[in-house]
Amino acid sequence: MAEGGAPAVLARRPLFAVGSRKTAGSPPALAAETAVAMSYGGSSHAVLMATPADLVDFAYGFSLTEGIIRHPDEILSVEIVAFETGIDLQIALAEDRSAELAARRRSMAGPVGCGLCGLEGIEAAMRPVPSVEDDRFTMTADDIDRAMNALSGLQPLFAETRAVHGAGFYCPDKGMTAVREDVGRHNALDKLIGVLAREQVAARRGAFVVTSRLSVEMVQKAAIAGAPVLIAVSQPTGLAVETAEKAGITLVASARGDGFSVFTHGARITS
């Protein structure tokens, strides 16, 4: 069972299989997916479809990467309230953070059709990201291969379902120190950022490793957390590369054990 009393996997097999699927079999379980609301001060701020696991980490990571808090100490408590139709994460903020969030909501409220809400949404999606200044962190090509291999071996939900993304934190001197999983790649990274924040681990001391393509949102989250290197099994988008270049992040893609591509700030990858 996951946090909040909801199962992270469901026992459900296909009615039948055809072709190679018939002999290969199917995963023994399906990944659970449920509506998770992020509520602050009793008001729902966002609802996301997510795996109901590591939800406190999710609340911290989402709050940090969305700019609702600047430091984990600004969250006073997280209460997980389960309903038949989903889960509500009731997050209590420090007084100044709560007041700032309320002011932000008031500024975004306007007459329907005025264009303000759309403009605010675009500006939020394309917000500038902080620069990762630490150039002392380096990795070797072998480190990158080890990181990808370690992540694949530390995903119990994926092993059961073959249907979730993983995000891990890799330190060359310690190995893979934290992994989080979710049906959504953004959610998995938020959960990882959340657990690092709660445990007061500095993201600048390692690399984020993800089992997904690299969209601009993934780069934005890594920059906000302060990770100098972002490694993915798949390719980046053009905007992700541009954003990583500006943010000072080393972007490593198509890392599948037989090589990889470095798109930005390659000095951190040493021979």
UniProtKB/TrEMBL annotation:
<dbReference type="InterPro" id="IPR016193">
    <property type="entry name" value="Cytidine_deaminase-like"/>
</dbReference>
<comment type="similarity">
    <text>Belongs to the FdhD family.</text>
</comment>
<keyword id="KW-0501">Molybdenum cofactor biosynthesis</keyword>
<protein>
    <recommendedName>
        <fullName>Sulfur carrier protein FdhD</fullName>
    </recommendedName>
</protein>
<feature type="active site" description="Cysteine persulfide intermediate">
    <location>
        <position position="114"/>
    </location>
</feature>
<dbReference type="Pfam" id="PF02634">
    <property type="entry name" value="FdhD-NarQ"/>
</dbReference>
<comment type="function">
    <text>Required for formate dehydrogenase (FDH) activity. Acts as a sulfur carrier protein that transfers sulfur from IscS to the molybdenum cofactor prior to its insertion into FDH.</text>
</comment>
<keyword id="KW-0963">Cytoplasm</keyword>
<dbReference type="InterPro" id="IPR003786">
    <property type="entry name" value="FdhD"/>
</dbReference>
